[in-house]
Specification:
Layout: E1 3-14, E2 17-19, E3 25-29, H1 30-36, E4 43-48, E5 54-62, E6 69-72, E7 84-93, H2 95-100, E8 104-106
Parallel strand pairs: 1-8, 2-6, 3-5
Antiparallel strand pairs: 1-7, 3-6, 4-5, 4-7
Length: 114
């Protein structure tokens, strides 16, 4: 048996753009992706602290060091620039593996690593 466990979390980043006319996904600054141990095309869950919206999508790389957090496609209807998001990724593992696993959690300031 496997369970789903928090693997990565980007806590409280600000939406910089919402692009309705894109196929779909969330664009994240590559520095934030690296720091949070999230890879391109990985599935993530997104929570909007401003309005309570929750959705799942996949990640595409944003320009390194730009601080970009841009929802694309239909997800752009769930956020506004300036909204605060929590972005999480999960991994499946056995309960024994999970007991010793520690997720990577980052707390950017102004969408930048400190």
């Amino acid at each position: 048996m496997t369970i789903e466990v928090l693997k990565s979390k980007i806590h409280r980043v600000s939406v910089t753009d919402a692009n309705l006319n894109y196929i779909g996904s969330i664009t994240i600054d590559e520095d934030l992706m690296d720091a949070a141990n999230i890879i391109e095309y990985e599935k993530v869950a997104v929570v909007n602290n401003n309005n309570g919206a929750r959705f799942e999508t996949y990640v595409i790389k944003g320009e390194r060091g730009s601080g970009v957090i841009c929802t694309n496609g239909a997800a752009a209807r769930l956020v506004q620039p300036g909204d605060i998001l929590i972005i999480t990724a999960y991994a499946q593992m056995t309960p024994d593996e999970a007991r010793n696993f520690k997720p990577t959690v980052i707390h950017p300031i102004n969408n930048k690593l400190q």
